[in-house]
């Protein structure tokens, strides 16, 4: 909270009868300004709850009608998630427009004690002070910190700006003190413990990121103490002030109540930006400043999207165009964010369609894009686009997947423009798409997709299959992935994958288009590991990353590593795969540095099951772990069967047994011993086939007549006895990664 702003405004309005009553209180504040704990406690006692309240200097309290405040719908999800609403330059200009800084305290102090400089010196505050436009931390301007945080957590930067104002008045404060910066978003300063701010969250960047992360967690379906639906919300931290049932309509409003868990009562709304008995002001002031500064908190938001072309200078984009004109710079790749899918055509034909910021085209060759096609994935909107081609200039507009550019004209795309409009709205530049493409001859055949995958998503079901470099699942909706299917196309080999499922742990390994049989159970996928097997492993590595609840995109995992989380109750919401040729550069992550979060103790990349044929019992049921055979019953094991599957392909367990009256039998795959002959097994040796022996060890032990359980042995060593006539009564087997 900007206590100094409150004090200054109070002093300006000292003629007000309220201020006359508070004359003694002001003396207390001035005396204890050096003690934030005392000051916070006092302010909370005065009813200044959930953000800077009472008055805001320089703001016209009649500029906006607070009667439009709706406790159940303070802000829409779309507005809170509009992370491209401002560029960093626009944020900087806005901050500069809102304050005239007095860094050296040359103006008269509203708090008494002479000038602001004299007042600051008397309270141990060094000059110069920084205001929002010129404040820096770790070499970054506040505007850069706000913008980068907005992009990382996909939160509207205007939400961050307004939160900084309603918590500390930092946007309009001409001489903020250091304490305001270290608790800039009020994060870690709960109203339940006034005056106590957790130093874990101190620091401007830490505050901004922590606040934005909280908003994103709730928007992504994470925990909130005020879920969508009916909730009892207090009017004030004092329960005696009462509250009411609020039907919270969306996740954005839910996140605001998790941040500031009070609603304004009728008196607080009627007071404008003033105070009222039993008032709470955080959410009221948030609503006020957003509407006054940026427009409606419930306005319709066009889908967020951005686009960029790669040329010799790197990725090129502006607010209105990607690429360049008049410079002769051909482009080789396109990437876009937002609710669109897009593909490019170059000398090699149509590249696989991409989405969610993935690259379509080539980043490391001399290929040039000649055509593009862009399709919206949200049926509420139409997307229009046109290309600027070398030697031609701007062509006409195409729409919703139509081809734009040239074919066989030796004319490369240099720039593109894209526009999104609500479906059904007339777009004046569009004339049917015929002037968007200049073509002669036929297209080069498109390359065959080498990897195909599909996700079963909450509220959607099975999505259509997509190719590598594309995202399966959803981002920003908070919907869980429940199942997956993956396939290789045109490659010799298999793809094998295993998932960690809510309530089930690591389920059986699936391969080549199989699912995990988790549809219809309403259970989240939490982690996944994927690997190739067969000849394809000589040519490719497989990389994959997951977007998980509360963290966003994790780092890339590869070739059987785990991506996601375990033991944290976090759902996978989106997933992306890439096949990378051996020796090529790995994909680079700009998000979370880890690929897996949580408990790794249960991770296994193999599925082993086995069974025993036992005297007087016959074949027992297959088991995945534990004992086969019996102990304490004096029954002989006569024969064994094994089944082993790993992420790295089908495997074989070679077994040879020492049999009563026979000796060591011939080593064969996945079985050994006898049945129907009444002969005891006396010892065994187990080993893995050559293709897996460099990745795994096989451990085993035997329970032997008159001896009991022997020690574990591994990889072809002998378990049991020979030459003693003692039966094996039980066996236990385990596969362990090296």
Give a structural overview.
With 738 residues, the chain is α+β, with helices and mostly antiparallel strands. The protein has 4 domains: 3-294, no CATH class; 306-439, no CATH class; 451-598, no CATH class; 606-737, no CATH class. Strands 9, 10, 11, 13, 17 and 19 form a 6-stranded mixed sheet that branches. Strand 5 (306-311) and strand 6 form a beta hairpin. The protein is globular and about 105 Å long. 47% of the residues are buried.
Describe the structure using short key phrases.
738 residues, alpha+beta, six-stranded mixed beta sheet, 31% strand, globular, disordered N terminus
- Helix count? 15
What structural class do the secondary elements suggest?
alpha+beta
DSSP helix fraction: 10-25%
pLDDT under 50 segments (min length 5)?
1-62
Please report the distance between the alpha carbons of the first and last residues.
56 Å
Strand content: 25-35%
Mind describing the biggest β-sheet? Answer: 6 strands, mixed
* Overall mean confidence score, pLDDT: 84
How many separate structural domains? Answer: 4
DSSP E strands, number: 49
Radius of gyration: 33 Å
Apparent shape: globular
């Amino acid at each position: 909270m900007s206590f100094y702003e409150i004090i200054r405004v109070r002093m300006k309005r000292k003629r007000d009868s309220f201020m006359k009553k508070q004359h003694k209180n002001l003396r207390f504040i001035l005396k204890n300004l050096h003690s934030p704990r005392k000051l916070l406690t006092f302010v909370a006692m005065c009813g200044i709850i959930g953000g800077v309240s009472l008055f805001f200097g320089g703001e016209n309290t009649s500029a906006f009608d607070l009667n439009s405040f709706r406790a159940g719908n303070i802000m829409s999800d779309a507005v809170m998630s509009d992370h491209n609403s401002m560029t960093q330059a626009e944020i900087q200009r806005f901050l500069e427009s809102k304050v005239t800084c007095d860094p050296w305290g040359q103006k008269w102090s509203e708090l008494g004690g002479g000038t602001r400089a004299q007042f600051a010196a008397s309270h141990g505050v060094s000059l110069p002070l920084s205001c929002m436009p010129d404040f820096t931390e770790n070499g970054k301007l506040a505007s850069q910190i706000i913008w980068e945080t907005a992009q990382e957590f996909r939160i509207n930067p205007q939400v961050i700006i307004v939160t900084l104002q309603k918590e500390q008045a930092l946007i309009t404060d001409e001489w903020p003190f250091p304490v305001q910066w270290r608790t800039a978003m009020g994060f870690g300063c709960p109203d339940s413990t006034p005056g106590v701010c957790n130093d874990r969250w101190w620091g401007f960047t830490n505050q901004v990121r922590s606040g934005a992360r909280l908003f994103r967690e709730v928007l992504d379906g994470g925990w909130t103490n005020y879920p969508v639906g009916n909730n009892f919300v207090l009017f004030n931290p004092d329960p005696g002030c009462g509250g009411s049932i609020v039907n919270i309509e969306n996740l954005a409003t839910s996140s605001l109540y998790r941040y500031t868990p009070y609603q304004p009562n009728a008196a607080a709304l009627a007071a404008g930006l003033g105070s009222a008995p039993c008032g709470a002001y955080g959410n009221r002031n948030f609503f006020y400043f957003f509407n006054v500064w940026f427009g409606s908190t419930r306005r319709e938001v066009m889908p967020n999207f951005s686009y960029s072309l790669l040329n010799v200078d790197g990725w090129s984009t502006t607010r209105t165009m990607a690429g360049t004109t008049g410079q002769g710079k051909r482009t080789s790749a396109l990437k876009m964010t937002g609710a669109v899918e897009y593909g490019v055509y170059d000398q090699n034909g149509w590249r696989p369609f991409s989405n969610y910021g993935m690259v379509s085209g080539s980043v490391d060759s001399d290929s040039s894009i000649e055509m593009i096609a862009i399709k919206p994935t949200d049926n509420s909107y139409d997307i229009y686009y046109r290309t600027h081609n070398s030697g031609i200039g701007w062509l006409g507009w195409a729409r919703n997947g139509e081809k734009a550019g040239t074919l066989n004209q030796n004319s490369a795309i240099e720039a593109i423009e894209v526009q999104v409009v609500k479906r059904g709205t007339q777009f004046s530049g569009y004339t049917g798409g015929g002037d968007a493409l200049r073509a002669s001859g036929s297209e080069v055949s498109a390359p065959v997709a080498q990897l195909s995958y599909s996700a079963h998503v909450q509220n959607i079901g099975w999505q259509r299959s997509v190719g590598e470099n594309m995202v399966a699942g959803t981002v920003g909706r908070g919907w869980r992935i429940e199942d997956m299917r993956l396939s290789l196309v045109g490659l010799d080999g298999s793809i094998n994958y295993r998932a960690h499922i809510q309530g089930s742990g690591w389920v059986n390994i699936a391969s080549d288009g199989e699912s995990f049989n988790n549809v219809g159970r309403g259970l989240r996928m939490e982690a996944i590991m994927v690997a190739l097997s067969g000849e394809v492993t000589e040519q490719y590595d497989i990389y994959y990353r997951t977007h998980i609840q509360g963290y966003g995109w994790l780092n890339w995992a590869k070739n059987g590593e785990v991506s996601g989380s375990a033991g944290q109750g976090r759902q996978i919401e989106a997933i992306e795969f890439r096949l990378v040729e051996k020796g090529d550069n790995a994909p680079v992550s700009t998000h979370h540095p880890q690929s897996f979060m949580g408990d790794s103790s249960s991770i296994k990349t193999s599925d082993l099951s086995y069974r025993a044929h036992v005297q007087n019992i016959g074949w027992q049921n297959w088991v995945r772990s534990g004992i086969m055979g019996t102990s304490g019953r004096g029954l002989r094991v006569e024969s064994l069967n094994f089944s082993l599957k790993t992420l790295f392909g089908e495997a074989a367990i070679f077994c040879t047994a020492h049999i009563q009256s026979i000796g060591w039998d011939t080593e064969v795959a996945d079985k050994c011993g006898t049945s129907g002959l009444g002969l005891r097994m006396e010892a065994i040796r187990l080993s893995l086939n050559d293709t897996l022996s460099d990745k795994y060890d096989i451990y085993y032990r035997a329970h032997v007549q008159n001896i009991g359980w022997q020690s574990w042995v591994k990889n072809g060593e002998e378990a049991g006895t020979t030459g003693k006539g003692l039966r094996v009564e039980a066996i236990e087997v385990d596969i362990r990664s090296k």
